[in-house]
Design goal:
single chain; alpha+beta; 8-stranded mixed beta sheet; 5 helices; about 15% helix; globular; disordered N terminus
């Protein structure tokens, strides 16, 4: 089973990550030169795979300094008609982008929005609208990247759709510094999981590894891609996606967080599949999970 770690107490710690205001999107910027997501291009297509993430933030400079310092990402800032867009790469592999918030949302905390691979973005947007979602940013072509769009699901959580012009990366175990897992916290996990099943073609199944009846796995191509579980009843908690980045050494990574203006929200602790997990916040309010597999534990080899 490919990286399916549903950290047993993830729902509790991710509730902290869900204490964030709704996302407002600036108007799409015009064409600029982006690095292709895969270089050389591939002929692979993995619908349902999480292939990109964007941080909507009012302070790109602070966020860029934090994530490059904590994760070791390298940054390239592009200009789009006077609007800065930062592309982050883990080694030579682009993994994330930072987009400046619209002025009307400048005071809101930053928010990460994951992107899911699709083969027919027009059809997926039509299905999303019919299934109760909302198209927040219509499909738009970007040079070197492909076609992108953003929707909100039936509980208002934003998620992106991406048809990469350079193909999708191979389904291999994520390296340190790459996205390892995405998890959705919602009020009605079954309804939300069914929504994602309709829009992205996921196979939806209860997580058999837990006794809870309200946790689900989203899979495609026989691989688990993400999880869905109930949002704890906590004041101010809002539905949303939590992205989790793999760490080579979790303690060393967390030690860099305070000096870069961030906060360790949840201290490192043991989690599923021989892993250690923590939750951090950047200086602008964006939250990310981080995980380390102890003793080189390899989730891809686990049944």
């Amino acid at each position: 089973m490919h990286i399916s770690s549903l950290y047993r107490n993830l729902a509790g710690v991710a509730a902290l990550a869900a204490l964030m205001a709704g996302t407002q999107f600036a108007a799409p910027a015009s064409a600029a030169t982006f690095p292709p997501l895969n270089n050389p291009a591939t002929k692979e297509a993995h619908p349902g795979k999480f292939v990109w993430a964007e941080l909507f933030t009012a302070d790109s400079a602070a966020a860029a300094k934090f994530y490059s310092g904590v994760f070791g990402w390298t940054a390239v800032t592009l200009e789009q008609q006077g609007v800065a867009y930062t592309v982050f790469s883990n080694g030579n592999h682009p993994v994330a982008g930072f987009r400046q918030r619209a002025p009307s949302a400048a005071k809101r905390p930053s928010r990460w929005v994951p992107y899911i691979a699709v083969t027919d973005i027009t059809a997926a947007l039509e299905i999303a609208a019919k299934a109760g979602g909302e198209v927040r940013a219509p499909a738009r072509e970007f040079p070197q990247i492909g076609s992108q769009a953003i929707i909100t699901d039936i509980e208002g959580s934003p998620v992106g759709l991406l048809r990469s012009s350079s193909g999708d990366s191979a389904d291999v175990e994520p390296a340190a510094g790459e996205w390892n897992w995405f998890h959705l916290l919602v009020k009605n996990p079954k309804a939300a999981a069914d929504f994602y099943g309709r829009v992205f073609g996921y196979d939806v199944a209860p997580d058999a590894r837990t006794e809870k009846t309200n946790e689900f796995l989203l899979s495609s191509g026989s691989l688990n891609r993400g999880g869905v579980s109930v949002l704890p009843e906590q004041e101010g908690a809002k539905p949303g996606w939590l992205g989790i980045v793999r760490a080579a050494n979790l303690d060393e990574m967390l030690a860099r967080v305070p000096a870069l203006g961030g906060q360790v929200i949840t201290a490192p602790h043991e989690a599923a599949f021989g892993s250690r997990f923590a939750l951090i916040a950047d200086p602008t309010g964006g939250t990310v999970g981080v995980v380390e597999y102890v003793n080189n534990a390899n989730p891809t080899n686990r049944p």
